[in-house]
Amino acid sequence: MSFILYSILSGTFAALASVFAKLFTDTRTVLITRYFCDLLNHFQNFQFLNCKEIERNDDNTSENIIYLIGIIRIICFLLISMCNALMWTFFTKALNKSSSSIRVTVLNSATNFCMTAIMGNIIFNETLSLQWWFGANLIILGTFLVISKKGSNKDDQKLKEKVQ
């Protein structure tokens, strides 16, 4: 595989780690817990949890709901760790495959930037303005310029000349 795929995977897992970190610390964890509670009750065909209690979140909230929210937070924390481990694994593989660490780093960062914004929009309903899209296109254009073959061949030749 080429360094490009590994760099893109690395950036994607970095963005996923950010999403799970936000879910771990954010109040939206309650919404995810409500979703899983409804899902569990739907497939179990009985109400072992009162899902409406989740959003109330006061002193009368049952222990089952508190445990479920805790379990969701623990799962998010584990997913942060897993995504970070995968991100570093793919980033290291990309560095090994590429002749230039700059190309890997730029592609990784651009992927992370774009994927974080897209996932933030989809999962958290964060708005992406026209100015953001313009800036993202400039970043993507710059990324293509940095990783293009023309520039890298000249850099490789200069490096070979310095070594000799």
Automatic annotation (TrEMBL):
<protein>
    <submittedName>
        <fullName>404_t:CDS:1</fullName>
    </submittedName>
</protein>
<feature type="domain" description="EamA">
    <location>
        <begin position="3"/>
        <end position="147"/>
    </location>
</feature>
<dbReference type="GO" id="GO:0016020">
    <property type="term" value="C:membrane"/>
</dbReference>
<keyword id="KW-0812">Transmembrane</keyword>
<keyword id="KW-0472">Membrane</keyword>
<feature type="transmembrane region" description="Helical">
    <location>
        <begin position="65"/>
        <end position="90"/>
    </location>
</feature>
<dbReference type="InterPro" id="IPR039632">
    <property type="entry name" value="TMEM42"/>
</dbReference>
<dbReference type="InterPro" id="IPR000620">
    <property type="entry name" value="EamA_dom"/>
</dbReference>
<feature type="transmembrane region" description="Helical">
    <location>
        <begin position="130"/>
        <end position="148"/>
    </location>
</feature>
<dbReference type="InterPro" id="IPR037185">
    <property type="entry name" value="EmrE-like"/>
</dbReference>
<feature type="transmembrane region" description="Helical">
    <location>
        <begin position="102"/>
        <end position="124"/>
    </location>
</feature>
<keyword id="KW-1133">Transmembrane helix</keyword>
<dbReference type="Pfam" id="PF00892">
    <property type="entry name" value="EamA"/>
</dbReference>
